[in-house]
Every structure is written in structure tokens, then in C-alpha cells.
Amino acid sequence: MKTPQDFFLFCSGVETSVLEKCPTDRNKYAGIGATVFFTGVLAFISSGYALFTVFDSYLLSIAFGLVWGLMIFNLDRYIVMSMKSNGNWWRDFFVAFPRLVMAVLLAVVISKPLELKIFEKEIRAEMVQMEQEVFKQQEDRVKERYNAQIADLRAQTAALKGEIAAKTAARDSLARIAVQEADGTGGSRQRNLGPIYRAKRAEADQAQAELNTLVAENQPLIREKEQAIQNIEAFVQSDIAALDRSRLDGLAARLDALSRLSGRSLAIFYASIFITLLFVAVETAPILVKLISYRSPYDYVLHQQEHVFEMANLEQVTLLSNNVKNKLKFDTETGAHRVNANIAAEKAVIDQKLKETLEGMKNKGFDWEGVG
Question: pTM of the prediction?
Fold first, then answer.
């Protein structure tokens, strides 16, 4: 390859011996080859970036990206090279359709990692939010394991405090009634410390004693249950602290982030579509160029050479077939003749022996006395 044009002609898969007879087609096929080459380069860059997000290694990403780029280059070169113009557009289209489908599929595969790189800043911001959502879900699942136990303890604590509050309210009511009886604002409406007051005071004192007993019984239980709640909450915080807080930085997470961004933002959605369409256009350009172009001298010369080879092959096959048929006919006829000759010879021998036997019997006669 002396010039870049020769290299691009190699990329197009053109037959150089045929192209030498059609110099006007060199630029056409050099352009097709350049498109195939740069598609392979884009495939290398795209796959290298995608694999770097997976392996986080420059060496591995370059190695695998190079393999992928060469594979896409070779596949594109074969697709373009295998297309031949027959002069019938519809026939050419149906022949090229599977190749177009393959080219579109390759374009989508190549474009997606490059989309991730183009929207990298937006994707990183979205992934931070996704991380927070994942952390929140993890914390909620941890809390759900203890919520029932904490709620039960809090209900028991509230019940114990409720008993104390009810007993305190009863004590306060009885004490207030006794005071009102003493100052004449309630009860008998007579201000004195007589027997009615003493009776009500006794009830208030009894309520106070019952309250003291209840507080002595319930307060330790309340402190125990509150301490149990604090211990469980400490366990919850310990389990939350032990959660895996690794960052979302994989290829799947980036694709998910891009999908979320496209769903929320029409601008990103349309940009993603147009980027994919751009790669589809680049990937299918060589096929479309060959499909919509008129038959060039290269096509005619190539068709002529292929037709000559086809006719020569047909001639050789026909001659070989005729030779086989003639040999079969010769073997069949000679075999039949040989069989007939052998039959005739055997028949002659049998006839001769039979004749000699009859002659012998005539000359010798028949012994009648021996029969008696």
C-alpha cells in the first residue's frame, strides 16, 4: 500500500486487478473504504470506553476495544464487499436488506457507549441521586425489620404511662374536691374542715397512695422498655452503618441513568435519538451508496469476469458429466455384448456335446438282450 488511497481501497474490499481496468471508480471505492475504516475506529473508541467502565483498566479496555474494533471493521468490509450491483434496483434492495439490518444493529451497539460519554456529566449527577435512592431503600429495609418490635414496645410504654396518667388525674380530681370542700367552693358549700372534708381528704390520700404504688410498679417497666427501644434503635443504626455504600459506577447503572434522564428530559431524549441516527447513517452509508449508485465500469468488468468463470465452470461440469455418461454407456453396452457372447459360446459347447452324444448312440446301437 503505497498511498492512503490504496489503504482505503483495501478497506472497501475492492478487487484491485479489476479496479485497474476502471480507474474512474478509484475515488468512489476509496470513499467507501474510508467510511468502513472510520466506522471501525469509532467502534474501537466506543467499546474501549464501555469496557473501561466495566474493568476499570486502560490495558484491558484498549486490548478488548481493539479486538472489537477490528471485528466490526472486518464485518463492515465483508458486508460492503459482498454487495454486487445487478442493475435491478428492487433485486439489489432485497439482497442488501439483511445487510442493512445488520448495519443498523451495529450502529446502535456502537452509538450507545458514546452517548454515555457525551452525557457523562448529566449521568454522574443522576447516578448520585440513584445512589441516595438505593441507600434510602436499604435503610428502609433495615428499619422495617425492627419497626414491629419498636412499635410494640412503644405501645406497652404508652399503656403504662396511660395508667399513671389516669391514676394521677383521679388523684388530682379527688384532691381538688377535698380542697373545694375545705374552702366552701364546692361540695356542701360550707367552709370548714369537718367530717365531710376529712372523708374526701382520705379518698384523695388513698388515691395518692395508689398512685405512688402504681408509679413504683410502672416506672421501672417504663425505663426498661425505653432502654430496650434505645438498644434496638442503636442496632438499627449499627446495621445501617454496616450497609454497603459502594458507588454506582457500572455500565448498567450508566445506561439506567441515561434512560431516566431521557424519560424526564425531551432534550436529552431527542439528542440520544439523533446520535443513534447519526451512527446508523454512517454505518449504512457504504451500503446505501452501493445500492443507489448506477452500475459503474467496475461492476460491469467484475460481472464479466464472474460470468466468464461461471461459463468456464459450466463448460467443465458439462464435459465431465458427458464423459461420465459416455463411460457409463460404453461400460453398459460392452458388458451386455460380453454377456451375450459368453452365452452364445456356452450354447455352442452344449450343442456340440449333445451332437456327439447322439452320434455315439447311433453308431453303437441298442443292446436289447441286456435289457432281458
Answer: 0.52
